[in-house]
Amino acid sequence: MFEVRIHGRGGQGVVTAAEMLSVAAFLEGRHAQAFPSFGSERMGAPVVAFCRIADQEIRLREPVMQPDAIIIQDPTLLHQVDVFAGLKQDGYVLLNTNRSFEALGLGDFASGRPPERLCILPATEVGLKHIGRPIPNVPLIAGFAALSGLIRLESVNKAISEKFSGKVAEGNIAAATEAYDMIKIRMAEVQHA
């Protein structure tokens, strides 16, 4: 079983991200579950959502405490919430920013971890460019697909089409495609470094 924890703030589509990730996995014939964990349910408050993906039925219902991957939709949470709590040593981290881990004060965290599993993505900028709103969730899901290889971009795009329609779906698919390509390029750079 592969477990993902998504951190963000209310209004950034954290819950929708977990749902679309689980739908994308389901479309590939896998079992998946997604669920949120709310504190105070208001715009801007920290929100956590979880997604599990497996090849057999998932019976667990508790929050993800030792994730295989963490997606951080809002970098302002880095020094407010312990977003890395329980992350496996070889776990994936996808962070919505254009600043390096070192520039964010995360150099110690990053050292000793596989560099090909730590990635940044300016997802808010990609969302703004294609959707017209600073919503990072869809670019991050597609970036996660590229980073982990767990799901295909085609499945992410199908999940988007199931959730949205018309120009909103088209914009989100364009954002997903650009984000996926950006992560693939970054991964190739890390492998050649």
Give keywords.
single chain; 193 residues; alpha/beta
Question: How does this structure look, described?
Answer:
The protein has 193 residues and is an alpha/beta fold. Helix content is 40%, strand content 20%. The chain is built from six helices and six strands, in the order E-H-E-E-E-E-H-E-H-H-H-H. Strands 2-3-1-4-5-6 form a six-stranded mixed beta sheet, covered by helices on one side. Helix 2 links the parallel strand 5 and strand 6. The chain is globular, with a radius of gyration of 15 Å. The N and C termini lie far apart (31 Å).
Describe how the helices and strands are arranged.
Elements lengths: L1 E8 L4 H14 L3 E8 L7 E9 L14 E4 L19 E5 L10 H4 L7 E4 L1 H9 L5 H12 L4 H11 L2 H27 L1
Helix pairs in contact: 1-4, 1-5, 3-4, 3-6, 4-5, 4-6, 5-6
In short:
With 193 residues, the protein is α/β, with parallel strands linked by helices. Helix content is 40%, strand content 20%. Strands 2-3-1-4-5-6 form a six-stranded mixed β-sheet, with helices on one face.
Mean residue pLDDT = 92
Chain oligomer state? single chain
Compute the number of strand runs. 6
**Alpha plus pi helix count:** 6
For the termini, the CA-CA separation is 31 Å
Principal-axis shape equals: globular
Give the SSE order as H and E letters.
Answer: EHEEEEHEHHHH
Strand order of the largest sheet: 2-3-1-4-5-6
- Low-pLDDT segments: none
